[in-house]
């Protein structure tokens, strides 16, 4: 039921809400005010607009038509001081958020930021679409000057080693683009019409001026991105990047606590600067953020225990993807979860009933649950969350950067290292750069070894993306479907496509019925997989512009 507002009240409220007469509306308010309003809203019989009018705007003389929110903001911050700080009601800090840009941070630090899974949405500068052969005004390549290393006797070796990697990357960029053009010329590409998806020959594409324009631009973009894909293996983890974050106040507080409590100078510096920025946006939400002795001391103790237990034990080789844990009863649990919302029986009884089903009945029930999915954006239901899998993965750092961004699962990685060897893209060898690549990787491993003896955590900065790292992923079947169908799309990077396909081979091995849930997983291989996506982009760009088509 909408509020009955006087003409004066209407004028005073108008700048702060998207509408004043419908039950669904948006707030045009500072995040802290919005959060405080929602919290007060939960304990009042008043409407939200009436609470804002009576308790936040009050009798303050706000200029009509201008969102001067100083008075309301003061009231909101006083509210948080009383509730959040005084009583520790963390749920209040979930009701507002902020956007933060973190520019010129290393890839090591970017992973620290993106480790925060819940309540934060990160977006990072791509190494696949952006070239990293530029320099700053001083002519220096864009990598982090890690403070501890720069203050150590390893400073010169660090600078020399990283410059060498960037120089090789820069020198090979244009030759690699030329090689890509020669190895897969435009007239040999398989095309599809960007509107209909119908197959096209290059002659058909070239005979239509619009199609030719789209195709040529898509081909240029794809070839350039393919060269970046290959050469990013040279980039060290010190490479500077940009990360944008949106998060709730509670999530930012937890992130700051972790950054203040970890051992890297860069992470603590980012925490200090981020808190200063958040203090200008949502100070009440991050007021308690500081170094957490529990986090810091636990990290130190666990690292010490690990060194005593296995540090001197040789590292065994393993397959790139190992499925370590899975639930033998997962199929029963998933099938019971499909039925449970539609019954009145306890879950234990439903599971017992499922056990009596024949193989044909089980297959039919599961098929009814998933067969109507039309594409990957039709997400399978929550019943799939009953099955869990734990994978141990070893793959190159470039690949990890892409798979780490999935947040609705448990991931834990080891430090970046050179001890597991590296991956060399076949295009490097085919283009005649194998000797340069091997030499670069060997130099990086030597530099890593020198640093690791004295600065084991900081040594991560010199690890090129080509080197393999190890991490675990624990995820339920629903998230596995999402990752499988997203990361095997034709435009996906070949490295992570293979890893995700291997994960699904393992799921199919232990749970063949449940594996049928990934209806849109792509098992093919591609040379210029993103070409069709680029063609559709060019088509949309042209047709969306007035007067074009």
Short summary of the structure?
The chain is built from 22 helices and nine strands.
Description:
The protein is of the alpha+beta class and 549 residues long. Among the domains are: 7-95, no CATH class; 96-127 and 238-313, 2-Layer Sandwich (Alpha-Beta Plaits); 318-416 and 467-518, Gyrase A, domain 2 (2-Layer Sandwich), CATH 3.30.1360.170. The protein has 22 helices and nine strands. It has helices spanning 7-13, 31-41, 48-57, 70-87, 107-114, 147-150, 155-183, 202-206, 209-231, 249-261, 265-279, 293-310, 330-339, 347-355, 359-370, 397-403, 426-430, 434-454, 477-487, 494-510, 512-515, 531-544; strands at 97-106, 120-124, 191-192, 199-200, 240-248, 321-326, 388-396, 410-413, 468-476. Strands 6-7-9-8 form a four-stranded antiparallel beta sheet. Strand 3 (191-192) and strand 4 form a beta hairpin. Helix 3 (48-57) packs across helix 4, helix 10 (249-261) runs antiparallel to helix 11 (265-279) and helix 19 packs antiparallel against helix 20. The longest helix is centred in the N-terminal third of the chain and has 29 residues, at 155-183. The chain is globular and about 75 Å long. The relative contact order is 0.12. Residues 59-67 have low confidence and may be disordered.
Map the helices and strands.
Elements: H1 7-13, H2 31-41, H3 48-57, H4 70-87, E1 97-106, H5 107-114, E2 120-124, H6 147-150, H7 155-183, E3 191-192, E4 199-200, H8 202-206, H9 209-231, E5 240-248, H10 249-261, H11 265-279, H12 293-310, E6 321-326, H13 330-339, H14 347-355, H15 359-370, E7 388-396, H16 397-403, E8 410-413, H17 426-430, H18 434-454, E9 468-476, H19 477-487, H20 494-510, H21 512-515, H22 531-544
Antiparallel strand pairs: 1-5, 2-5, 3-4, 6-7, 7-9, 8-9
Helix pairs in contact: 2-4, 3-4, 7-9, 7-18, 9-22, 10-11, 13-14, 19-20
